[in-house]
Amino acid sequence: MLPDALETLRGLDGAEPSEARERLRELRERHPGVRFRLLWQREDYDDSLHYDLLIRRPGEGTVSLSWCPDRALPWPLRGVQRAGETLLLRIDGVGVKVVDAVARLDFLWDEARLVDRIVAAALVQAELEEAPVELSDHEIQEAVDAFRRARGLLTVERTREWMDRRSLTPVDLRELVAGEVAVARVRERVTAGRVEPYFEEHREEFGTARVARLTFPGSEAARRAAAEIDAGAGFFALAERTRGARLVVEDVPAAEIGTARPGDVVSPAPDVLLEVISVAGAELDADTRRRVERRVFDLWIDERRRAAKIEWFWGTTARTGTR
């Protein structure tokens, strides 16, 4: 396998990434038990391309294979960075550096969701590099059409205006949508055969409850209302006479009410009271299946994240190292 991989790598000299990926597909077909990941770097110094190949057998480790032709850029010059590469954008001659832009979004560190999504996207991309998803032109075009319909982009003019606002070309749009489809295929691949067992093991977590949700204008009003209910006041009667409170009857995941039973009143947030109307056991219908798939996929992401070495190139270690 190694001589075959080296020969493939040598054959990539002068090839563009699209052609290189196609040749790697042939290598994967010849060695189905091995996972190959192609890395490339385009040098600004002379616009040359350099390829490396990561070869991994699950449970055994990773081999890094590299080849450099005699005429290639010397190793000490690789990675030379232009000053412009530190810029995120420039407006009327005024540049904004990446580190400054991220610093201005610093408050988002109080919510890990943005960071988690960035890391999750990188982990999925790594999976796609090792085990690509093949999409036909017809599948991609169908996905682009569905993407446009979902956003009301039903004419060429509206679609072009939408892309212009985001500085996207038709090729960019096609690649972005294809990437989303590929991620969905990875999710299907990861969760295949794991949904039913997980559901049976965690069935009680996927039940639903019908509740009356009473949202107050502030936490103090919610505390006073809770005290009145404890003293015997009726939930709906209190809702009618409380100024500024909003009452909604809805279905929520049973996990939101914990062990509460019909007739109980719980407070999932400082300004919210819920009265449980009914609790229904879980069935693996289409909606529940989607919830279970998301849970299983999130667990897979967590496993990959714990095993991955994550390096941030901005911010402080305290902010990035504990995520």
TrEMBL record:
Question: Domain of life of the organism in this record?
Answer: Bacteria
Which InterPro entries does this entry report, sorted A to Z? PpiC-rel_mature, Trigger_fact/SurA_dom_sf
- Name of the protein in its database record: TIGR04500 family peptide maturation system protein
Q: Tell me the lineage of the source organism.
A: Bacteria, Bacillati, Actinomycetota, Actinomycetes, Streptosporangiales
